[in-house]
Write a structure and sequence with these properties.
By secondary structure, this protein is an alpha/beta fold. It folds into two domains: about 200 residues, Isopropylmalate Dehydrogenase; about 140 residues, Isopropylmalate Dehydrogenase (3-Layer(aba) Sandwich). The protein is about 45% helix and about 20% strand. The strands form two sheets. The protein has a ten-stranded mixed beta sheet with strand order 2-1-3-12-11-4-5-10-8-9, sandwiched between helices. A two-stranded antiparallel ribbon has the order 6-7. A hairpin with a 4-residue loop joins strand 6 and strand 7. Helix 2 crosses helix 5, helix 7 packs across helix 8 and helix 9 packs parallel to helix 10. The longest helix is centred in the N-terminal third of the chain and has 19 residues. The two termini are about 25 Å apart. The structure holds 3-isopropylmalic acid (IPM) and manganese (II) ion. The site of manganese (II) ion (MN) has 2 residues, from helix 10.
Length: about 350
């Protein structure tokens, strides 16, 4: 098995190092032969070779069995609206070129962390849902530009029936393996593209009578996620709504540093934490590596079809938190460093 490792910017390299430690501990235990090849992306790639997703990196991803991705982004570009190349374009290009039309973000709580959630314990305890975000269509990829001498700007949200069908199909398949409820989130009371989503979902729902299909407007969904998170099982939505709702969903677990994701589609799948590059913490050995480590667990499950290996990583992560081995975002009183958390988890796996 060959893994393309793209650490990216900010805290990317240091959290990735912990994920690789973990992956290698699992490989040693199960006698899997894994190889790692590193590639450039993001601001780091812009600085070194002038573009955020270089062709060599793309080729590396294409010929690998999975991609582990850290984070990208650099404040230098955020505050400069005139920048012509941006790190984020690298991520979007990678998603597009690898055909990663589905981003899967499981939202789960950890018993030992319930007190860190901004929501009351009884609301979040047992919350467990999967948000599936469409990742290569919609307003992030539609026609955009300026007219009127630059004084008018536009971004367009476009979806084809085929794009909507393939992501809904995935949603239904997830729901069938879980609690059999699918919530389709849109803004069909206003947007034509959302009406296509809803129309398509209504047709498909007939083919999945074992799944309850629920329709929800995105503004209402934003509220329901924090009011009744336990009511969700599988949620499917378009690109931008999913971007926003999954950030919102991530905080109910107590820390943004915990949530992993898998992006799957036509070519090699990519596994990445949902948080960003957290530049203020870069190089300080304080960032939480857990989301990246859990992304590696998803890699074993989704890309390698090795559920036992994935489960072992989850078990090790839960054990580390129960033992109070956690970074400052979680264990403010007695924090461990990024590398200490990685070492502990890798050690746990070796000993188990
Ligand atoms: C994410 C990120 C990206 C997105 C950015 C960095 C382009 O926020 O993965 O959610 O919006 O898709
Ligand atoms: Mn986002």
């Amino acid at each position: 098995m060959k893994i393309a490792v793209l650490p990216g910017d900010g805290i990317g390299p240091e959290i990735m190092e912990q994920a690789i430690k973990t992956v290698q501990a699992v490989a040693n235990k199960y006698n899997h032969e894994l190889s790692y090849e590193y590639g450039l992306t993001g601001a780091t790639a812009i600085e070194r070779v002038g573009e955020p997703y270089p062709e060599v990196t793309h080729r590396l991803c294409m010929e690998s069995d999975a991609v582990l991705f850290g984070a990208i982004g650099d404040p230098k570009y955020d505050n400069n609206p005139k920048a012509t190349v941006r790190p984020e374009q690298g991520l979007l290009a990678m998603r597009k070129q690898l055909g990663l039309y589905a981003n899967i973000r499981p939202v789960q709580t950890f018993e030992s962390l319930l007190h860190k959630s901004p929501l009351r314990r009884e609301l979040v305890e047992g919350a467990d849902f999967v948000a599936i975000r469409e990742l290569t269509g919609g307003i992030y990829f539609g026609d955009k530009g300026r007219r009127d001498n630059g004084n008018t700007a536009f971004d367009t949200c476009t979806y084809t029936r085929t794009e909507v069908e393939r992501i809904l199909k995935l949603g239904y398949e997830f729901a069938q393996k879980r609690r059999r409820k699918l919530t389709v989130v849109d803004k069909a009371n206003v947007l034509e593209s959302s009406r296509l989503w809803r129309e398509t979902a209504q047709e498909m729902a007939k083919k999945y009578p074992d799944v309850t299909t629920e329709y929800m407007f995105v503004d209402n969904a934003a509220m329901q996620i924090i009011q009744w998170p336990k009511n969700f099982d599988v949620m499917v939505t378009e690109n931008m709504f999913g971007d926003i709702l999954t950030d919102e969903a991530s905080v109910i677990t107590g820390s943004l540093g915990l949530l992993p994701s898998a992006s799957i589609g036509i070519h090699t799948s990519v596994f990445e934490p949902i948080h960003g590059s957290y530049p203020q913490a870069a190089g300080k050995n304080i960032a939480n590596p857990v989301a990246t480590i859990l992304s590696a667990a998803m890699m074993f499950e989704y890309a390698f079809n090795m559920p036992e290996e994935g489960a072992l990583i989850r078990d090790a992560v839960a054990a580390s938190m129960a033992a109070g081995i956690a970074t400052v975002d979680i264990a403010a009183d007695k924090p461990s460093s990024t590398s200490q958390v990685g070492d502990w988890i890798a050690e746990y796996i070796a000993m188990k």
